[in-house]
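2024-03-11 09:14:02 INFO queue: dequeued item Transient receptor potential cation channel, subfamily M, member 6, len=646
2024-03-11 09:14:02 INFO validating residues
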Amino acid sequence: MSRKSWIEETFFKRECVKFIRSSWDLHRCIPVCQVCQTLIRCCCGRLMGEHSWQESTLPLSLCPGPEQGMEEKWSMMVHTKASPTDAYGIIDFQDTATRVCRAKYIRVAVDSRPEALLQLMLREWQMERPKLLLTVQGGSENFVLPPKVKQAFSKGLINAALSTGAWILTDGINTGVSKYVGDAVKTFGGHDLRKRNTIGITPWGMIDNNMDLIGRDVFRPYQPLGNPLSKRACLNGFHSHFLLVDDGTLGKHGCQEGLRRKLEKHIQLQKVHPRLKQGVPVVCVVVEGGPAIVSTVLDYIRSAPPVPVFVFEGSGKAADLLAFLHKQTANNRELDEDIKEDFLVRIGDVFGIERAEATDLFTLLQQCMDHRQSITIFDPESEDLIAPDAAILTSTLKGTKASPAEQLSMTLAWDRADIAQKEILVYGQHWQVGSLEQAMVDSLVMDRVSFVKLLIDNGMTMSRFLTVDRLEELYNTKQGQTQQFLHHLVEDAKQTSLPVGYRLSLIDMGLVIEYLIGGAYRSTYTRKNFRAAYSRMQDKDQRRSSLSSFTKQRLGLGTKKARSLQDLQFFRTAQPYKSKESSLPSEKSHRTDIIPGLSAPLPCPFNFNDLFVWAVLQQRQQMALFLWQYGEEALARAVVACKLYR
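2024-03-11 09:14:37 INFO prediction written
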């Protein structure tokens, strides 16, 4: 199926097909009079002439007859019809003279499946998988941010997104908090369009000049200069992608919130990295905002798992009310009656609402404080101010109630060793057995040099960490062309072809090292003592009643059935050297150490040299350069690495 046909079969638009007048002020109406045509609007927000009459007939009169009730309410499911989307492609924003600003967009129905939307963004739009989701909530009308708050918000949001590979979700319009996000991208986002993962989820009916965007797989110029008298808004030119949510209405805001929340929950279920089990963390960033923002915050922190909320104090309205109550109720303090009374007056003044509504809103704010551990207040005016991007990421870790190992995995996916060092790898932290060793394996496989250094500085020793299992796991990591390259080298060294799914052994890698360096070098992995101990370990595993996980991986069996006799014959002839008991050297004549992962004594334990050679053969230059600095005989190791590279 072609890309164009898949989009049109998967995504739809919605159009109102029945005129239900929003006002019942009667006038002397002749059948379909001029007043009805030009003044009276349907509940969907459109005039009569702007409707589609393919599914229903044109009304003869808008006056209710005796059989016609006045109680029928407009419903998206009943009074609209779905048809394939007719608006998707690329927007070219015309007013950004300083740089090229283009965005991909699509018009989708409000009941679209979040799975299909994520597939569209990853496969069709080729966006990188998110490692963090920053959903920005706040005022939709224009407001003024104090300079310090604007600087902290702009720099913190963009630095957090760029350093972690995050997606930013906004309303996408050129007013309110979405405009401030666009300004932040313009100032701190750089010129790399591929890193601008700023997604606007915008109501189709709220977009000014939305008819200019109609067209299938088109390139549309767009002028984001709206009519100041219009209730609709323009798209912000510094967003990279737009989901234009259509519920069949015109000029009405809010239909996008349900779909946006569904998409956020679905992204939470995705893995933050293929090697890690954790889902993509989500954090809600609140700037200013009206009364509806309080309900939104409560929905986030009540969800399971809770979504952390990061509030910028000093931005105004709902954000300041949340910050004030959060500080006043610290340490389970109750509000004094005089403070409560002043606070109720303040709520009414801020939002211009009556006492009853202010009381209801105060109740919602108190319910938010019941989950205060998921709310972080950031004061840009504070003297002990930490970097806003670090504050956002720290609140993400603490607000999700994740274990230390899970938090370490998140920072590993983000490649933020500074956050891990300051917040996770601290004195007194309780770690489950093996969690730090697994973190080291993940750091090596994901090529996170800063995390390898951090774990070594915190007491990780190679002699205890490196085992046969772990070293072979590193060599068999699927790394695309690098893995194929190693298989080709093994085939050249052994002068035979490898079967599909063959698992490389350390003896194979010893043959490769000797093959690349030449006859003047003998690898530790091919020496007689190592091969004998390696063989005994395999024999011990094979004698067990049920195959161990190591044997399954080594032979490539897994859950599959036994291989054919030809494959088994290959493994039998490719077994490492098995020495006779009489030919084994005595323990007295050789210095021996027990290597973790092997039950037999071997000539020497694994150390940084083994990891250094692995990094060179995996063509990881920065990791190899870092590991070269550890251990002894740096000059000799540099010569070996140069020989291997050549």
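2024-03-11 09:14:37 INFO annotate: Residues 203 and 245 are 5 Å apart (CA to CA).
2024-03-11 09:14:38 INFO item closed
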